[in-house]
Design a protein that fits this description.
Chain B: GO terms for molecular function: penicillin binding; peptidoglycan L,D-transpeptidase activity. The complex is a heterodimer of chains A (525) and B (489). With 525 residues, chain A is mainly α. Helices cover 57% and strands 3% of the residues of chain A. Chain A has two domains: 6-442, no CATH class; 478-524, no CATH class. In chain A, a hairpin with a 2-residue loop joins strand 2 and strand 3 (173-175). Chain B has helices at residues 2-29, 31-36, 41-48, 81-88, 99-103, 105-108, 116-125, 140-150, 178-181, 186-198, 221-231, 271-277, 280-290, 292-301, 329-336, 347-358, 394-410, 471-488, and strands spanning 55-57, 60-67, 74-78, 91-92, 96-97, 133-136, 155-160, 167-173, 239-241, 245-247, 254-256, 268-270, 362-364, 369-373, 379-382, 387-390, 424-430, 439-446, 453-459. The chains are: A mainly alpha (525), B alpha+beta (489).
Chain lengths: 525, 489
């Protein structure tokens, strides 16, 4: 991801179209196979549903051509493929319902939510013409995030589902506001950190080889820590707590490049988690289930036994290398096979091969997001893209790690695949933002680079409309200032308009080789 | 900020690698352990979710699977379950399989290597191929006749076609209904199994071929007679001692004849007459005279102590004991000569003795599976009749046949007489545990000149006749009913 070929500055949306057709074929094909395997016929309304999915995917592609022509070409197809696989699995679980008794009918709702999510995602892309617009709402985002997190605690609104108070009931729908809060928090962290990162990065005492921050700078991290613990304690949701805290620590590190923050963050979280484990039974039970799931006593405990986790492991084992094939496993034996444990459901029927492919798809998506963060010029964009990409990876890690016993099981959902409208919508918005930022990152800029004269005149391209006074020109972004900090240039490379003496590794060689082509700030990538 | 972003990218990569490793660990390296965990019902589901082939008797399925809407996918059901249970066995989610369901599992489930083409077709078409069907040698008329004739008495009946070894009837009573064990409700199936295990009369014990073996009693006199004739020193007309009593060595007691009668006023009689009236003292004395080794050799020539017999269900070996050890001395051989003491036989074994005599001394390997056909009804496997061993010479077989005809014509087995058919047979009234009524035996074949069927019947503890029972009175009519069913069918 270090070198960005000049060719990439062309939209190259044809590549996306090709990948999209493949992605649609995977999703719709899986849907067809599920129907054929379980009912010996194509699913009811197959052509209608399949056609609608294809139409939505292709419309998304066309809209990207119009709204964000330079956006990353891989993200949309990957997300469509994952979403399609998820839909097929949920449909399959709807059909194969003998085990748990009683039909479930979740696929239509999920399909509906996919459509809504895609519409919302494109509304976001359309509204947020430039991601830097979001920076104006830094503190609004904080408030929104905290309100969202607190919503389930509001009497009459919050619903306790399966022991975790992370749901609210709105218009008859159960929503998980935390999924949206992660976006709000990512915006808040990005805005806050891009402004304050120098302060945070400034040297405090150095202890045991760790450059520690000054005590008074610990304020924000303490607040986030407290919020995370509050979620853990009051909403009994280890997953969301872990999600926010991981997001914050990662973004803090990206902003400051201080390992000390990571260490402090992990220590704080560990202390909080251990304290919670000691104080609250449900966390302790989770840990015991994690460590000794096969103990007869732990397995048989009800509630809070390891039956679900072990059931998932049995499902994965049954799948083996190549899986049982669509419809031939028994995924419904595991509670929440369509949401929390859809990874095990997929593993049972698609096998290790299928799961590795799915993990790779996620990895591509996340790395594309991080690549966007590297490529984008402004610090806010870098932090936001980096944070959003990381939170997706982190969420997946927490979910899958919980099912495969790397960490204790928590209640997070697999982005795009797991059944659940909130998760689907929130993650589509995440992708919308990443697409928007990537469009910005790859869009040829007409801006002159500080210290360089724009070669041969400015390229005839509409300048990016920047909110907040259009002060986008070199050196104007607030986060560009810290170059003044003596001897610390390297650590504050993120500003879109580095003077060019940042990290040597960050300097694309083409910039030197073909200066006339490069109309971007030197150190941005 | 690009430097930390790249580091984050690396961390993300490591996180994904961790997920891949943990998933691989579970799905590949730990899969077998997890699959074998007794709590893993998937393993059971997978094993039982197959379109099992039927077990067929004379064109009708007595065991078959039908698709059902539950996790197992297919429900096994049995027609005339108790009647055929000793042959079909059961196919139970909870309790496993038995008999044909177990012995032919590879074919029934479609896993057998010779069915690879069917599996491949299934893989391509996406349809689950049905397992092969197993067609039995059982003659439904004979099976039903044996079942009816035994009535409520405990015991077993085995009928064999002497020339081939085809098993025509195999009944064990009391029996059980395999349908109760095939329930997919594990609680129900377990309860049924428990109930049958504890039930009076041990209904799941296959008395015809396994589990309990019985003292063959006087039916074993066929073996003793065969040993005598084979020795070359005897003919059916050879006169042998037949004292009223024979004292047991080192004992104040002595062997008597049935009912304490005297076999012959002269104290001696021909071998044929001794067999005809089933004289104990004569055969006890003959056994001692021939010697333990001669008896055992002859018994083994009839299939005693053959551990490897499968039909294809495993058959418990019948047993001729070592009697000439110091502690048993001649007392053992004395008893062994009349099928008492430690001699043990299955009903199948005694049917095989008659069948060998009927088939000119050649014993054919008994079998219950005629053909195995794939779902397209092509024959996948066919059992060819196989010579198991030569039990006696042709002339001995002829002599024994004549002697057995005498038993039925005017001896102990007259109740097996059939109009117009020459029946050769031998009764047995086997003393059992002291205080218990003797087991009633009868083994026979017919017609004597062209044997179509050989039968062995045991009625435990004399059945409904109790201590008054004799093989001739209780067991012979059952054998007759079975032979009639075969000959008239």
């Amino acid at each position: 991801m270090t070198t960005v070929d000049t060719d990439e500055r062309r939209p190259r949306r044809g590549a996306e179209l090709g990948l999209l057709v493949l992605a649609l074929a995977i999703g719709i094909g899986a849907y067809a196979v599920v129907g054929l395997q379980l009912t010996d016929a194509l699913p009811e309304h197959f052509y209608l549903v399949g056609g609608a999915i294809a139409a939505f995917g292709l419309t998304a592609h066309v809209l990207l051509r119009v709204l964000a022509p330079y956006a990353d070409q891989v993200m949309l197809p990957v997300v469509i493929a994952l979403n399609g696989i998820g839909l097929a699995m949920i449909y399959r679980l709807d059909l194969g319902s003998q085990v748990t008794g009683g039909d479930q009918n979740l696929a239509p709702g999920q399909l509906q939510f996919t459509a809504i999510s895609m519409v919302v995602a494109f509304v976001v892309i359309w509204l947020v013409r430039d991601h830097r617009l979001l920076r104006r709402y830094t503190y609004t985002a904080m408030v929104v995030g905290i309100v969202l997190v607190a919503l389930p605690l509001v009497p009459g609104l919050g619903v306790n589902i399966h022991g975790a108070e992370i749901w609210i009931n709105l218009f008859g729908y159960s929503l998980q506001p935390a999924e949206f809060a992660k976006i709000a928090f990512a915006i808040f962290f990005a805005g806050y950190l891009v402004t304050n990162r120098d302060t945070l990065a400034l040297a405090g005492p150095k202890i045991l080889g760790l450059q520690l921050p000054r005590l008074r700078d610990l304020g924000p991290i303490i607040i986030v820590w407290l919020v995370s613990l509050a979620i853990l304690v009051f909403e009994r949701d280890l997953g969301t707590s872990l999600l926010f805290f991981g997001l914050f620590v990662a973004m803090l590190y990206i902003a400051t490049e201080r390992v000390s923050w990571v260490v402090i963050g992990l220590l704080l979280f560990a202390v909080g988690a251990v304290a919670a484990t000691v104080m609250f039974g449900h966390v302790e039970a989770r840990v015991e289930v994690w460590l000794h799931p096969f103990d007869a006593e732990v397995y048989g405990r009800d509630p809070g036994g390891s039956g679900q986790l072990v059931g998932g492991l049995f499902g994965l084992a049954n799948g083996g290398l190549f899986g049982t094939g669509w419809g031939a496993g028994y995924p419904r034996l595991v509670p929440f096979a369509q949401s929390d444990f859809i990874y095990a459901s997929l593993g049972e029927e698609l096998g290790l091969t299928g799961l590795l492919a799915i993990l790779l798809a996620y990895l591509i998506l996340v790395e594309r997001g991080l690549r966007t963060a590297v490529a984008v010029r402004d610090g806010f964009g870098k932090l936001l893209a980096g944070g959003l990409a990381f939170v997706m990876a982190w969420q997946l890690f927490v979910v899958v790690g919980g099912i495969t016993r790397i960490i204790p099981l928590t209640g997070l959902t697999m982005p795009f695949i797991a059944q659940g409208g909130s998760s689907l919508l929130a993650n589509w918005i995440v992708v919308a933002l990443l697409l928007r930022i990537s469009d910005n990152a790859r869009r040829p800029s007409s801006l002159p680079v500080r210290g360089q004269v724009a070669p041969g005149g400015v390229r005839a391209h509409e300048p990016v409309a920047v909110p907040g006074g259009g002060a986008v020109h070199a050196g104007a972004m607030p986060d560009d200032a810290p170059t003044a900090v003596g001897g610390r240039v390297g650590s504050v490379d993120g500003g879109g308009t580095d003077t060019g003496h940042g990290h040597a590794t960050d300097q694309p060689t083409e910039v030197v080789a073909r200066p006339s082509d490069d109309d971007q700030p030197g150190g941005a990538r | 900020m690009n430097h930390p972003l790249r580091r984050v990218a690396t961390v993300v990569l490591v996180m994904f690698l961790a997920l891949m490793v943990s998933t691989t660990w579970i799905q590949f390296f730990r899969a077998e352990t997890l699959d074998n965990d007794p709590r893993n019902v998937r393993t059971i589901y997978r094993e039982y979710d197959n379109y099992r082939g039927p077990i067929v008797v004379a064109g009708d399925a007595v065991a078959s699977s039908a698709p059902v809407d539950d996790p197992f996918g297919f429900q096994r059901s049995y027609t005339d379950g108790p009647l055929y249970a000793p042959v079909t066995g059961y196919f139970s989610v909870v309790n496993g399989t038995s008999e044909i369901e177990s012995a032919e599992n590879d074919y029934l489930s479609g896993e057998a290597s010779s069915l690879w083409l069917d599996r491949l077709t299934g893989l391509v078409t996406g349809e689950q191929p049905q397992g092969a069907s197993v067609e039995l040698t059982i003659d439904p008329a004979a099976q039903q006749a044996a079942w009816d004739a035994l009535g409520d008495q405990r015991g077993a009946v085995v009928a064999i076609e002497p020339a081939t070894g085809r098993v025509l009837a195999l009944v064990s009573k009391p029996s059980y209904d395999p349908n109760t064990l095939a329930s997919h409700d594990s609680g129900e199936a377990s309860a049924a199994f428990q109930e049958l295990s504890n039930a009076d009369g041990d209904p799941m014990s296959n008395r015809a071929i396994r589990g309990k073996t019985y003292p063959p009693g006087s039916t074993f006199k066929l073996v003793t007679s065969a040993a005598a004739l084979e020795s070359g020193d005897y003919t059916p007309e050879t006169v042998i001692p037949a004292p009223d009593t024979i004292p047991y060595p080192q004992s104040s007691q002595s062997m008597q004849n049935f009912g304490g009668i005297s076999c012959s006023p002269s104290g001696e009689m021909t071998l044929a007459d001794a067999l005809r009236i089933s004289c104990n003292t004569a055969f006890a004395d003959l056994g001692v005279t021939l010697g333990d080794d001669a008896l055992r050799d002859q018994a083994e020539d009839f299939g005693f102590d053959d551990d490897g017999l499968t039909i294809p269900m495993r058959v418990t070996a019948s047993h001729f004991p070592t009697n000439d050890t110091e502690e048993s001395d001649e007392g053992g051989t004395l008893r062994a000569g009349i099928g008492q003491g430690a001699v043990r036989a299955t009903p199948l074994q005694m049917a095989m003795v008659s069948a060998a005599i009927a088939n000119d001394g050649v014993q054919m390997a008994p079998y219950t599976v005629e053909t195995v056909r794939n779902p397209d009804l092509d024959v996948v496997r066919k059992t060819d009749p196989r010579r198991l061993r030569t039990s006696v010479s042709s002339s001995t077989a002829e002599d024994l046949t004549q002697m057995m005809l005498g038993v039925v014509q005017n001896g102990s087995g007259t109740s097996a007489q059939m109009p117009g058919v020459q029946v050769a047979g031998k009764t047995g009234t086997a003393e059992n545990v002291p205080g218990e009524a003797p087991h009633a035996w009868f083994t026979s074949f017919a017609p004597a000149d062209d044997p179509q069927v050989a039968v062995a019947v045991i009625v435990e503890n004399g059945g409904s006749s109790g201590s008054e029972a004799t093989g001739g009175a209780v067991a012979a009519p059952i054998a007759k009913a079975v032979m009639e069913a075969v000959l008239n069918g």
